[in-house]
Structures are given as C-alpha cells and as structure tokens.
Amino acid sequence: MALIDKDQGTLVLRRPAEKNPPRTWRSWLIGRPLATADAPHQTIGKAVGLAVFASDALSSTAYATQEILFVLAVAGATASGYAFPISIAIVALLTIVTFSYRQTINAYPNGGGAYIVSRDNLGELPAQIAGAALLTDYILTVSVSISSGIAQITSAFIWIYPYRVELAVFMVILIMLINLRGVKESGMAFAIPTYFFLLMMFITMGVGLFRYLTGNLDLVLDAPAVLVETTQSVTLFLLLHAFANGTTALTGVEAISNGIPAFREPRSHNAGVTLIWMASILGSLFLGITFLAIQIGVTPSEEETVISQLARTVFTERGGLYLGVIAATAIILIMAANTAFADFPRLSALMAGDGFLPRQLTYRGSRLVYSRGIISLALLASLLIIVFEASVTALIPLYAIGVFLSFSLSQGGMAYRWYKIGRLWPDQVIEERGSTLRYDTQWRFKMVVNGFGAICTFIVMGIFAVTKFSEGAWVVLLIIPILVLMLSAIHRHYRDLAGGLSLRKYAAPPRISRHRVILLVAGVHQGTLAALRYARLLSDDITAVHISTNADESDRVCQEWEGWGNGIRLVVLDSPYRLLIEPILDYINQIDARRQPNEIITVVVPQFVPSRWWHNLLHTQTAFLLQVALIFRPGIVITSVPYLIE
Amino acid sequence: MALIDKDQGTLVLRRPAEKNPPRTWRSWLIGRPLATADAPHQTIGKAVGLAVFASDALSSTAYATQEILFVLAVAGATASGYAFPISIAIVALLTIVTFSYRQTINAYPNGGGAYIVSRDNLGELPAQIAGAALLTDYILTVSVSISSGIAQITSAFIWIYPYRVELAVFMVILIMLINLRGVKESGMAFAIPTYFFLLMMFITMGVGLFRYLTGNLDLVLDAPAVLVETTQSVTLFLLLHAFANGTTALTGVEAISNGIPAFREPRSHNAGVTLIWMASILGSLFLGITFLAIQIGVTPSEEETVISQLARTVFTERGGLYLGVIAATAIILIMAANTAFADFPRLSALMAGDGFLPRQLTYRGSRLVYSRGIISLALLASLLIIVFEASVTALIPLYAIGVFLSFSLSQGGMAYRWYKIGRLWPDQVIEERGSTLRYDTQWRFKMVVNGFGAICTFIVMGIFAVTKFSEGAWVVLLIIPILVLMLSAIHRHYRDLAGGLSLRKYAAPPRISRHRVILLVAGVHQGTLAALRYARLLSDDITAVHISTNADESDRVCQEWEGWGNGIRLVVLDSPYRLLIEPILDYINQIDARRQPNEIITVVVPQFVPSRWWHNLLHTQTAFLLQVALIFRPGIVITSVPYLIE
C-alpha cells in the first residue's frame, strides 16, 4: 500500500483499497464481508426470485378461503355457495392488480413499488402515505406470518404453547440472520420450503380434483362444531365483507415490484415473468382450495383450519401426505415473513435516500444488504409479537389496510401516468421526475385498467377499515398519519440542514484574529502538563483556570503552578457551592460577552484515559460534562487532551 | 464581580464567590444550596444526636428478646427461664462494648469507627475488612429495618401486603430525601418519633413493673399457638445460640463512634455522653422487656410479636396505649434505617478519601451532605428489598455478622493500642499514623477490657456464622472478601495513578516540533469550512481526508474541494467494505508508525450540533465513534468543531 508523501504536491490523492476484508465475530455469524464491487453478482434468477418474493402472497392461500367462509357462516350453511363466485371476483381483482403491477415493472426497471410510483406521479404527500402504509404492513406481515406459523405448530403440539412468544421471536431473529447474510443465500435457504409447499398443495389439488371427477370425493368426517349462529341473511354488505376478507389473498403481490433490483438482468423482464407465475399459482391454488372446500363441506373453525380439513378428506386419513401438507403450510407461513425482510430494508433505504427516514438506513452492511433496515424490522416485529403475545387474532385486524392503501395509491398513480402519456404527441418522449414517459397508443385502455384497479382496492380498503375499525383497524388509521408526520419532520430537517450548510451564497468569513485558550487545571500533574504543552502549541493567549472547592487544595495547586506553569496566568474560581461545571460556564460566559467577532475560544481539558473500563467510575468525567454543557455555543471548541498511565 | 484583565500580569488571580446560590428543581426537593463556609453550623447536640444515631440500636429491643425465646423454645417451655440470665450476659457485653467505644471516642475526636481504629492500629487489610463489613451491614440495616417496619404495618393492615415492596422502596426514598436535605433537618425530623418510642416503652415498663410488684400482672391471654416442637435439651451450644441471637440487640451501638464529627463541640464529650445514655436506655429496656416477657409467659411467634403480647397484657386490653406502642415500634424500626443513612455516607467518604472507594464519594452535595453516598445506599438497599421481596425472614440471616466482625476488629485494634501505650515511657507522647499515643497508667486494665470485648464479639460472630451459615450467612461471608478485593483494586488504581502522574522525577519533554492536523471531510459544506478555518489556526500542516464509500459522491467532494479547500491536500481513502472508522484508523496508524518523537497529531472532526435531540438519530456520530476508537493512543488529540444550523 502506498504511503502518502507529504511533499508530493498533489491536491487530491486517491488511495487504493485493502485487499483483505476485516474479520470480526460477525464474520462467523453472517459470513465474511463483501466488497462494494461485488454488488452486481448478488442477484437472483426467476426460480429463486419466486421463492424469495412470493412466499408472502402464496402463504395467504392458507387462510383466505377460511376468512371468506367465516363471514358467510353468519348467514347459514347454504350461504357458503357464494364463496366460489366471491373467489372468482377476487381472482379477477388479482388479475387486474397483476397487470397493473406488470405495467409498473416495465415502467420502473429500478424498482417500482407503491412508494416510487406515488412519488413520481402523485407527489410528495401521497408518496409518504404509501411509504408509511407499506412500512407498517411489512412489520405486520412479519408479526402475523410468524405468529400464524407458530400457531399451526402449537395446534399440533400443544406443549409448545406457553413458549410461543419466545419461539416466535427466535424465528424472527433466525430470519433476520439469514437476511443479514445476503440475498443470494437467503434465496437458496427459502427456495426448498417454498417449492415443497407448492408441491404438497398441487398434489392435494390434483388428488382432490381427480376424486371429484371420478365421484370419489367424500364430505368432511367429524367436522368441527359450528360455533357461529345464523343471525343474518345474505346482504350486499355481507358479501362485500366476505369479499374484503378474502382479499387477504392479495397481500404480498406488490413484493416483486419493490424487489426488481434484486433480479438478474434483464431485470424488468425476469421480475415481470416471476409476477405472472406467482399470480397464476396464487389464483389457481386459491380457486382450487375454495372449490374443493365447498365440495367437501368444510366448517370454518379456529380449532381446525380449512387446509387441515381439506387435506385429511382428500387423502382420507391423517397420514404422511396430510402431515406433509400441514408442515409445508406452517413453514410457508413463517417464511412469508422473509418477503417483508427482503422488501422493508429496500424501501426504507429508498425513502432514506429521499430524506424521509434516517440516512443511516441507506448504509449497506458488510454483506451488501441494508443491515440496519433488517435489524429495525426484526426489532419492531418482535416488539409487536411480544406486545400482542403472538396472537394472530389480535394482530389480523391491523393487517392488510396498509396493503390496499398502497395498492390504491400505486394504481392511481399509474392511471394518472397513462393520462399524462395520453396528452403527449405520438412518439414524444419526456423525462419527468427521473422516469421516462413515452407515448403509448393503448393509454386509454391501460388507464381504465389501472383506474378500475385503484377504485376497487380503495373500496376494499374502505370496507376493511369500516368492518374492522373497532377490532383494531383504528390503530393503523392512527399510526399511518403519525408516521407521515414523522417522515415530514425528518424530511424538513434534512432540507433545512442542506439549506443551512449550502455554499451557494456563502462568503468565507475573515481569518480568525484571536485564539484564546482556556486550560482547565484540577491539579498539577503530568497529565496537566501534557495538556499545557498542547495548549501552548495552539496559541500564546492561554489562561489556566482552577475551580476551588477546597481552600487547602487550591493553595497547593497555586503553589505548584508557580513552579510548573511556564509563567502562564492561573485564575482561581471560588466555588462556594462545590460545583464544577457552573463556575467554568460563568467564566466562559463573561469572556464570551466581551468576545470580538473572529475571536475563537478553545477549552483544553486534560482527560484521564483509564487502562480498564471500570476505572472510568473512579473519575469525574469533567471533559464530557463540559462538552455537553457547551455544545450549543458557536465559536467555542472543547479539546480533551488524553493522558495515559502505563 | 471583577472581570479578568488580561494585561494585569498577575500569575495567580483569585475570583470572589457568587453571593446567591444557584436555584434548580433540586432546591424545591431538598432545600436551597448551602455554601461550604456554612459547614460548621450544621452540627447537632446530644438530645438530637441520640435520636439520629440511636434509633438503630434502640429499635433492636423490638426483636432481640423474641430471638432468644425462639431458640430456647426448642428445649421446651421451662427453658425460657434461661432468657433472663442470657440477657444479663448480653447487657454485660453491651457494657464492655460501650466502655470500649467510649475510650475510642476519646482517642478519636474526629470520628473513630471500626474502620479508623483498625486502620490506625492494625493496618490496611484489617481496615479494609472492617470497612467492607460495616458497609455491608449499613446496607442490610436499611433493608432489614424498613422491611421489618413495613411487616409490622402489614400485620395490622393485611390489605397493604401486596404493595409491601413498593411501600418499602418508597420509605427508602423518603428517608433518602430527608437525609439529602442535611443532618440538622433530619435530626429534627427523627427526634420526635424516637422520643415517642422511648416514652411508650417506658410507660409499658413502668406500668408492668408496678403491676408485677403489686401482684396484679397476669399471664398472656389467648397466647399464640406454640409452633416449635420440643426436640432438644438445654446444651451449652443452645445457650450460646440463644445468646448470639440476642446480641442483635447490640447492632447499631457503633453508630455514634462513626458520627462524632456531626456533634456540636466539644464533640468527643458530647458523643461519649450520648453513647452512655444510649447504652443505659438500651440495656434497661432490653432487660425490662425480657423480665416482663418471662413473667407473663409470652410465646415466641411469627404471628404476634413479643412487644404486642407484652403491651396488651400490661395494659389489659388492645386500647389506645397498646396501639401507641405498636405504632411507635413500627416507626422506630423504619427509622432505624436513618442511622445507616447518617453513617454509611460518612464512612464511604472517609474510605474514598483514603483511596479505597471512588473519590466522587467525598464530594459534598448542595446541602453539604455526602449526597452520592446517600443515593448509593438508597439504591443498594432498594435493590436488596426488591430482590428479597421485603421479607425480613430472608434478610435476617445476612445481618449482624458484619457488625460483630467490625466490633472485633475495632476492639482488637484498641487492645493493641493499649499494648503499644504500655510500652511507652511515662509521660511520653508519640504521633503514629495521625493519632496521638499518650502513656496511660491504666493501660493494662484497659487492654484487658478491650481484648476481652474483642474475644467475646469474635466468638459471637463465629456462632452467628456457624448456626446461620446455610440460612444465608454464606452470602455475607462471600461478599465481604469480594468487597475487600474491590477496595484493594481501587486503592491500587489510585496509588498507581498518583505515582504515574507524579512530578517528582518528571523532566519536561522538549517542545513539540511538528503539529500535523488531519481534517475529516464527509462532504463540502459550511460545517466543513468552519472546521477547516479552525484547523488552519492550529497548524500549516493540514491534510484533509475523505472516506469514499460511493464513487459518485467522492468525485463530487473532490470537485468541490478544489474550489473551497484553500489549496490543502485532500486524501481520498477507498473503503470497499463501506466502513467509516476503520480506514481512518488505518491511515492514522500509518502516519503514527512514521511519527517523529515530539510530533503531535490532531484530528479535527466537523460535528453537527442538532437543535432538537431527536436530530441526533438522523446523523452518524463519527466524531464520537472516532474519539472512542482513538482514546487509547498517546499523542493523538481529537477535536470536534461544532457547527449549528440556526
């Protein structure tokens, strides 16, 4: 490595990088550090991408049908016949959302989640709302999915129940560590369980449909007791409520559009194909489960899930295949959290880059992932799990509102984008807010599709908010505006800072005309003399200051100073109330009041450096206390000169 | 107030004190600050001194008799007849201890607790053992007395029981605040309850003895059930065990000898008289209670205390006088904690002055009391109360070992002192370790008295340790050596520090020949330029250093530096692993390796000063992290130049 030659005369000198990455205890936990130059290689293909980004969406098939049937149950057993049409409507909505997002992915090859689309097309406030909604929902995704997965396990093994919170938090930490290792490894770690889940579900579907077509599919034996009383008739509101509940199947669909940069080139193409795969699988699974569930007459129940009833009816017994389905479902639910771990850090880094969140979130850790975002998500989700005691029932009403809010904003933004594109001349291309607008002959059709999607998802969100308000949805409706205010405050700070520090209208102040140095003297010893030696380097204008709390002691200091003080004046400040910091502040205030412009004051504090940490407890931290007390004073610099005892 | 004239030419300048003490929120809580000059007036007379220092000793009469009877109960009801002779033996021991301490008080007018006596006569290690034993026991005194007082209250009002820990901690805080106000006020606050207790107890004694002499004293009616089975015969061990248990009456006797400096002049005389008063009251109360308790045939019980049985039998009903006795007992037990609050801070300040505890403990707070010692005691005692859930039964086995250990050391030290005095010529006076040894014709008698006391208290301690080892005494036998090791380590640190800083063999190093300044540049803005302006004041030898984690960003920094950098060389350090601190450290290490002797390096870090606390969360604290990383490096000074945005 080239050392710097001070006589080289170069104004700017670049130094090459070290070859070997630093190794710490973290290397053992999350792998050796990766250089920034390695970044492009850390991307994933379509098959792994499906596993990483789709587990959230696919896992929702585990509960979406059940949620529809729960609502319809209040209108009696026959009302369950409405479930299949409702599911078809939901799949239609899924199709609309999928096409909308595919258009977004093509328009935003660098990642086009709801936040970016809202920001580019609707402006700052909608972008902040979308961002706040998404961040909230990612945190909830982790809490709900993990809690739900653990609930599956504890239903099978009841003795685990008392440890569910600890187990859930442990799972969060495990997924956090996998994600801290980096996206490629986490893709591999999650591909196998995702594909295992798909395999088990399609075997169930296939066997179930075969038996249905050959007339061998029986009704559910020993169905759980019906707990819901028939109290209502089938109304439009009831059907909309069931529809809204079923749309939880759509949560997670937006994940891929946020994660485009993680895909291998050509990114937009790969991400778009993966989205279509995911939507097709999700739609057919959801329709298949709903169809078969109605045929075998499942009963929605907290005791036994629809998946469990379906699997044991299709396979006619609680055998190996049944256990395989249950295990795969539990695992995919826990892993759905991984989708949030893939997207939350990216979104928060994006928003931090725009100055809406602390800049530190843009920092990539040793493994090139946004480690601070990953850790923040793990902490917040664990907190929710602990507060709600890993209860899915308590968490679920908070969930999904944010998703549909961001869907509406994203699709509304796209619709407005098509409107703007429609106003261009044919073949005209304009750049607006960093994205390219290019005339498209199909703009009317696309605008209608996106606009219709936006209206639908907005209605779904409204129904969610109204029907679940008192169950907990109010918390989210409160948190999102608070988050938006926070984002705005952070943004204002960074904007003010940039303005305040700007050099645009900056005139260099005149050279400093006087440099006063104040040296604090507690006692006369080698440490004090080292600080004095340093102070003499800074200026000839030095005043030593001693705070006298004990007359005998300060007499001794004065005496010794005459011998060792190099003729520098010592001011003894009486402190009748035995205070240390306040007399110094008073003294500095007086000097400050008479200070000339372009005069600067440096306070030199000898600071003892302990050789063991606990030695700190044996010393008054004057330098630190003074630094805290004086930090708001312009033109005053505190310098602590360390001294060590070998 | 005189301002400093820099042309005055005086080497040492004294500045007068401010007249008005600073007023803060603390003034409201503990009173306005007192000037150091007010100190001598904050002393107390004999009557108040008795209340402040004797509540601990006097309160032990509330349980000492009961503790004797508990042990004798295992040898059957008739064995209780041994209680009175045992009490006489304990009072004899009390007399010996009292005379020993009176001699100590005369020899040590500035305070002569076990710590000082051991230090002056036996040396450093015995002094540390005595100190550790006393500190442990003061903490236990607070925990035990408060818990016991609260237990009295909760026995009467059972609904308070669930809140006993909170109530006990609240009491500790209350007594802490009273003590933080200062000794005079706390004396007044505690005098009334102490004298109320004495009044109530002597009324009980008087009425009881009158009835006994007139033949009207009945046996206890409805005595509590005897829970202890008769399993042993009367053995010497049993009697010694009962004796040891009864000697809890002696805990607190040493308090006055530690507190002599709090007394009004003539201090030794006043303290000595107070000690005699206290011992006489304690002895007669203890004998009276034991005598009457046997006459009325009390049953030792956890359900009803001996005091309660005695009071209701003497007053023939549970009337106003009975309730007065119970209330006074509860109050005196809670107040016994105050004795520890009077002595613990003084002892810890004394030991800190000798360099065995952190020096900060010698600091007198705004009210001229050792506030840090008072707060430390409150914290430690509260911790014990919380850990042991305010259970007296759990705390009591830890108690009293420390007292008797310090008694033994103190009296042993005095015996050795008389031995040394005996070896002087008549009328010879020598100064040894700060105390005066003067020939005394009675040295043999006094040596025997002290030596006998030392042996007796040592035996008592041994019996305590053996009979209560498994109940919890082992904790104390473990903690005291650990504390002694801690005290030694602290002492070693201060001694090494004083040696290392000593100017005795110090030769002033040559003037610093080169002052290199390294200026950290994260971006080019007004804050950076302010730091650059300051750096140019320090030296002409400046290197600006920029850590490059992002190529585009550092290109911009280089470009802007060419415009604003005043021709100062900028070194760009590539950081491929996106680290901030490590590349700077590497760079400094390289410069350091080639550093000449008498060359000093100052690292100037521009530090953003937020106008709101939460803005700190939005910035990386580079200056602070660097300071932590470089603090162990001699010859490197970190200066952070603050910049504010208005």
Features of the shown structure:
homodimer; 646 residues; Amino acid/polyamine transporter I; Rossmann fold; 5-stranded parallel β-sheet; two-stranded antiparallel ribbon; disordered N terminus
Quick recap:
Two copies of one chain form a homodimer. With 646 residues, chain A is an alpha/beta fold. The first copy, chain A, has helices spanning 25-30, 46-59, 64-73, 83-107, 114-121, 124-156, 164-181, 183-213, 236-246, 255-258, 267-296, 306-314, 320-353, 371-387, 392-395, 401-422, 443-467, 469-501, 526-538, 551-564, 581-593, 622-630, and strands at residues 12-15, 429-432, 435-438, 514-520, 542-548, 570-574, 599-609, 636-644.
Give a description of the structure.
2 copies of one chain form a homodimer. The first copy, chain A, has 2 domains: 57-411 and 447-491, Amino acid/polyamine transporter I; 514-643, Rossmann fold (3-Layer(aba) Sandwich), CATH 3.40.50.620. In chain A, 59% of the residues lie in helices and 8% in strands. Chain A has 22 helices and 8 strands. Chain A has helices at 25-30, 46-59, 64-73, 83-107, 114-121, 124-156, 164-181, 183-213, 236-246, 255-258, 267-296, 306-314, 320-353, 371-387, 392-395, 401-422, 443-467, 469-501, 526-538, 551-564, 581-593, 622-630; strands at 12-15, 429-432, 435-438, 514-520, 542-548, 570-574, 599-609, 636-644. Chain A has a 5-stranded parallel beta sheet with strand order 6-5-4-7-8, sandwiched between helices. In chain A, a hairpin with a 2-residue loop joins strand 2 (429-432) and strand 3 (435-438). The longest helix of chain A is centred in the middle third of the chain and has 34 residues, at 320-353. The radius of gyration of chain A is 33 Å and the shape is elongated. At the A-B interface, strand 1, helix 18, helix 19, helix 20 and strand 6 of A face strand 1, helix 18, helix 19, helix 20 and strand 6 of B. Strand 6 of chain A pairs parallel with strand 1 (12-15) of chain B.
